[in-house]
Amino acid sequence: MNWLAVSPDLSPIEHLWDEMKRRLQAQPNQPRNLNQLERDLRIIWNNIPQALIQRLIGSVRRCCRAFVTV
């Protein structure tokens, strides 16, 4: 299964980036420059619940099992 390493669906960090993107897009005031973007992303990163991160990490085994049985 050499292709698993490049499969974004099996990578918890890809799902975390997606969550950060949704949170950034949901903000009423969008960043207007790189400094504001960096600030907003740091705030979003620091406010991601640890439970969400643990759930994403925990889902890897289930996703791999589903992938292997296909």
From TrEMBL:
GO MF term (any one): nucleic acid binding
Source organism superkingdom: Eukaryota
Protein's UniProt name: Tc1-like transposase DDE domain-containing protein
Lineage: Eukaryota, Metazoa, Spiralia, Lophotrochozoa, Mollusca
